[in-house]
């Protein structure tokens, strides 16, 4: 077993990075919302000092100040709750909906601020453009367009509430058209930039996905490589320890594979290993973790599987390989390709990843020493019997 103490550079899974990115968006909105009420208060105070009159009543100012502050605490609690899921990944779509919910709230808070500070005569109307730009950059392009239409609708409602009598006058209609045009223009400018930036993000994410797959996969079989197998075994052991689960480990190699390579060449040997990898993919569950351990050795982690289930699965694999017609198999001692399998189960055969792997490996060694083409489950007598073989 290789030394696992050396630090290994690790590429984070694209899903993890996507979640971190979405958490970042939510945190960013929360931070902006702390600035927003402070800006509003500072703006109104400055306006009152310079214009010698108040733009908004004290009661309304308190409302538009406290509303984002109180709701911000609620959003913070929700985000922190999602960040502490005890090792489980949160739902990406739920985090995206949280961003959308925050933006919807911001739109309502902004509309109230505009209404209380002069409606269509309020200088705060310009903040709608800032909102549209933030919305376009943080969420889906089409969703941002709906938010822009919501902003226009809310502005129409504000204008109607301000002066329902003169709302349909030519001057009022011209004002609303001007505001609507500015909002749409702000959306298309920011949307164009956002769309191009997002396409670059998707390209980088795809490249990262491909790079990660190459870093954790065996190039010949497409199974996980040895380095990633050790990580998976460690994670499975920790999960089983935490939740009192069991798992089984299968390790096997090809019988007389050196003879096969010497007789048929290494190219055919590689093709045979690739075909065995294909059989493994067909015979095991999607939740089982398949890896090439090295040379002609393979390993399989079977989560939440006891020794009986693991033994049956191992036998199905052994029989499938034995029945498969491999080119060049006639050069083997029994005119066919066979495998020897060792098996150990957590926690019955060990309480650490190292113990499970070591006991499965000893079972494999015993399978080979006792005749090959068989599955051996670890037991306490194996080590004594191995001493007799030696």
Describe the structure.
The protein has 2 domains: 14-214, no CATH class; 226-389, Reverse transcriptase/Diguanylate cyclase domain (Alpha-Beta Plaits), CATH 3.30.70.270. It is α+β, with helices and mostly antiparallel strands. The protein has helices at residues 14-51, 58-83, 92-116, 127-138, 141-162, 170-216, 226-243, 257-264, 266-283, 307-323, 353-369, 382-389, and strands spanning 247-254, 289-294, 297-303, 339-346, 375-377. Helix 1 runs antiparallel to helix 2 (58-83). Helix content is 66%, strand content 8%. The longest helix has 47 residues, at 170-216.
Beta strands, count? 5
Order of helices and strands: HHHHHHHEHHEEHEHEH
Specify the number of helices.
Answer: 12
Q: Which oligomeric form is depicted?
A: single chain
The figure for the number of domains is: 2
Structural classification: alpha+beta
Q: Please give the alpha-carbon distance between the first and last residues.
A: 21 Å
Overall mean pLDDT score?
Answer: 85
What percentage of the residues does DSSP assign to strands (E)? 5-15%
User: Low-confidence segments, ≥5 residues, pLDDT <50?
Assistant: 1-11
Order of the strands making up the biggest sheet? 2-3-1-4-5
